[in-house]
Design a protein that fits this description.
With 81 residues, the protein is mainly alpha-helical. It is 84% helix and 0% strand.
Length: 81
């Protein structure tokens, strides 16, 4: 798969992860306000999991972007080119 395509897909996953985290955080707040603590705790656990996954995707974008920049700045392998 093309490197730029992988980077754009990871960025899309980051945006989706942030939306999901915001939705779960809203459920946590509603659970606390409605005094349904088990729902708030369960949603909080899911939120932490998706925060970690989203951070992993952020690191993936950074790593892929860094590799893409290094590839453009490196000299060609064949000196005759």
């Amino acid at each position: 798969m093309e490197l730029s395509k992988r980077i754009s897909q990871s960025r899309i996953r980051i945006r989706s992860g942030l939306r999901l985290i915001a939705f779960l955080f809203a459920i946590v707040v509603l659970g606390v306000l409605m005094d349904v603590i088990w729902m708030a705790k369960l949603s909080g656990i899911f939120s932490v999991f998706f925060i970690l996954v989203t951070l992993l995707e952020c690191w993936n974008v950074y790593r892929l972007s860094k590799g893409q920049n290094e590839n453009h700045n490196s000299p060609p392998d064949d000196p005759s080119v």
